[in-house]
Recover the amino acids of this structure.
């Protein structure tokens, strides 16, 4: 039982090692850039996962592509433009803050404010009722 | 202060707005969204034909014709089912049906088409999926509508169906062909 547990633990923590083997970097900065990028983009197949976590074929294919571009010295910005041009904003796990996504960012805040406003009016009204 | 009537109306208005927003947003399938390539030029490429490896294909393949580009693979089950649709529904006159064999090998796709019939005027071999990435492919089968100037006009992610073909594709194809 304990042996089994140890085996599982070892397998779990060794996963990043396997990733590093598939995508080796001489330059540590490039390794960091690559890691950040694989966490920035959504896996289009398993859409709640980032590319880093996803095992889908498309994710592997895109990671291969990212690897090539990072090794070629492309900037993260250029790589992001490349991805968004082909897959759209949806490939970003965090939607960009832009005029077209303004409503997306603002609506939750607006609804929250509306909720507070309603609560405030309720508490005012119940105070008035008590005073009256 | 507001009258009771005014309060009720305001509440109903707020709820109405809230539920309308919810209704509209929830009716969108978040897994499928509009391709950013609509009304942009289809990507440049150079790849061999999957049917004849000595034949090199490039993006000139879609200049001068309206093209329906079907992205599929021999390993994709849904594509095998969709293939019946392409076999049963020949293209309107002047429209070419071209295939992109995505992350596959010519040997496999040749076997696939030999067994099931070949409705395609040509099959582009994309064994590494690079043209697929340039097209933003993420869920085969996918189909693209490309006009005679090489501009992407429409896209479907998922198998083509009769309803979809009739309602969404034929009207657009006919517009591009210049017929009504």
């Amino acid at each position: 039982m304990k042996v089994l547990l140890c085996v599982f633990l070892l397998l779990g923590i060794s996963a990043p090692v396997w990733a590093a083997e598939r995508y080796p970097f001489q330059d540590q900065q490039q390794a960091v850039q690559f890691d950040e990028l694989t966490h920035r983009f959504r896996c289009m197949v398993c859409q709640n996962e980032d590319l880093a976590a996803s095992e889908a074929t498309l994710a592997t294919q895109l990671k291969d592509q990212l690897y090539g571009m990072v090794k070629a010295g492309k900037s993260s910005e250029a790589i992001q433009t490349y991805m968004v041009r082909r897959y759209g904003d949806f490939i970003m796990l965090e939607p960009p803050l832009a005029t077209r996504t303004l409503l997306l960012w603002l609506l939750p805040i607006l609804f929250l404010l509306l909720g507070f406003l309603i609560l405030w009016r309720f508490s005012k009204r119940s105070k008035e009722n008590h005073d009256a | 202060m507001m009258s009771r009537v005014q309060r009720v109306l305001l509440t109903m208005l707020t709820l109405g707005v809230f539920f309308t927003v919810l209704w509209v947003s929830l009716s969108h399938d978040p897994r499928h969204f509009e391709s950013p390539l609509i009304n942009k030029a289809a990507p440049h490429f150079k790849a061999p034909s999957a049917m004849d490896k000595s034949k090199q294909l490039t993006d000139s393949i879609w200049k001068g014709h309206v093209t329906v580009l079907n992205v599929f693979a021999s390993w994709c089950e849904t594509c095998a089912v969709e293939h019946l649709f392409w076999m049963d529904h020949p293209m309107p006159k002047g429209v070419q049906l071209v295939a992109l064999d995505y992350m596959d090998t010519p040997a496999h796709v040749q076997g696939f088409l030999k067994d099931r019939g070949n409705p395609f005027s040509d099959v582009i071999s994309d064994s590494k999926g690079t043209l697929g990435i340039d097209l933003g492919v993420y869920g085969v089968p996918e189909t693209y509508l490309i006009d005679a100037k090489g501009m992407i006009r429409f896209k479907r992610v998922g198998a083509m169906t009769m309803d979809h073909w009739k309602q969404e594709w034929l009207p657009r194809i006919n517009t591009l062909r210049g017929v009504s």
